[in-house]
Amino acid sequence: MHFTDLQKHEAARREAELRRRVYPRWVADGRMTQAEADRQIAVMEAIAADYAPPDLFGAVAA
Question: Which comes out higher in pLDDT, residue 57 or 11?
Answer without folding.
Answer: 11
